[in-house]
TrEMBL record:
SUPFAM superfamilies: Periplasmic binding protein-like II (SSF53850), Winged helix' DNA-binding domain (SSF46785). This is Putative choline sulfate-utilization transcription factor. Belongs to the LysR transcriptional regulatory family. One of its GO terms (molecular function) is DNA binding. Residues 8-65 form the HTH lysR-type domain. Keywords: DNA-binding, Plasmid, Transcription, Transcription regulation. It holds the Pfam family LysR_substrate. It comes from Neorhizobium galegae bv. officinalis bv. officinalis str. HAMBI 1141. The keyword Mitochondrion does not apply.
């Protein structure tokens, strides 16, 4: 079949898809790296070839016609399939797996264990994406994500989950310096500021144990990694999430302040994108992550 004789200009079709998705000639032009006039010209050529308008021009707005919506839906599906095929071809000869997680989970849990995975799978290249913002599983850039939260999730399939427990931790030096006994207003509290509703704060912890004293954090950080490093250096008491601080407890750089623990509301979840392309590398990584999470 000679598609060239049946299809309009591919440039015009790509332009139409961008305009529909961005809902603006100007935004589409910026994305495509052309002028707004060039976008308008491509749409005009497409309308001329199809013999009907694609948009109804309104004051400071455009509205796609029914024919435009039908063509746009077909374009979105087709271009998505093409993009996925191209990605599959690019990675078919590469044993690459991309794992996404928060900065703290990557730093304190994943990275110390990666040597084990790499020794078992020397031919697989590992790419780690660390960010505290929610990882976009629909982008196609992430093969596997470790996300803290309460499943199910609308953008991924949960392969394995693990609970966690929270307990106050500090350095051995701080433990020697502080007054013996339970937590009190004389302790120095290290807080992590987080917008995640599942993140546990000192106020919540003290409320759980029935503490009645007023407290103010002496240090406050935006990343949990900074909180833990401050605690390791004797700067005060931090809330220790078990999975993240276990290596420090094992090494003796952190100790638990007392035996009180609190079960976190969320869980660590190994997630696969809903439209994940299975590869030997990702299958091995999932199996290894699952075993390591439950070890």
């Amino acid at each position: 079949m000679q598609f060239r004789k049946r299809l309009p200009s591919l440039t015009a079709l790509l332009t139409l898809e961008a305009v529909l998705r961005r809902k603006s000639f100007t935004a589409a032009a910026t994305e495509l790296g052309v002028t707004q006039a060039a976008v308008s010209r491509q749409i005009a050529l497409l309308e001329e070839e199809l013999g009907q308008p694609m948009f109804v021009r309104k004051h400071r707005a455009i509205e796609p016609t029914p024919a435009c919506r039908i063509l746009g839906a077909s374009l979105a599906r087709s271009l998505s399939d093409i993009a996925e095929t191209v990605d599959a071809i690019k990675t078919s000869g590469q044993d690459v797996v991309t794992i996404g997680a928060t900065i703290a989970f990557s730093s304190f849990w994943l990275l110390p264990r990666l040597a084990d995975f790499r020794s078992q799978n020397p031919g697989i290249q590992v790419r780690v994406v660390s960010q505290d913002e929610k990882i976009d599983l629909d982008s196609g850039e992430i093969n596997i994500a470790i996300r803290y939260g309460i499943p199910p999730f609308n953008d991924g399939t949960v392969i394995a989950s693990k609970d966690d427990f929270i307990t106050p931790v500090c350095s051995p030096d701080y433990l020697k310096r502080r007054q013996p006994g339970p937590l009190s207003s004389t302790d120095e509290y290290i807080e992590t500021h987080s917008s995640d509703p599942l993140w546990f704060s000192w106020a919540q912890w003290l409320d759980q144990i029935g503490a009645s004293f007023d407290f103010k954090p002496s240090l406050r950080f935006s990343h949990y990694t900074e909180t833990i490093f401050a605690a390791c250096n004797g700067q005060g008491v931090a809330l220790g999430w078990g999975a993240l601080v276990q290596a420090f407890l094992d090494a003796g750089t952190l100790v638990t302040l007392h035996d009180l623990t609190y079960k976190a509301d969320g869980r660590y979840n190994i997630l696969l994108p809903l439209r994940a392309r299975r590869t030997a590398a990702s299958d091995r990584a999932v199996a290894w992550l699952t075993a390591a999470l439950h070890a």
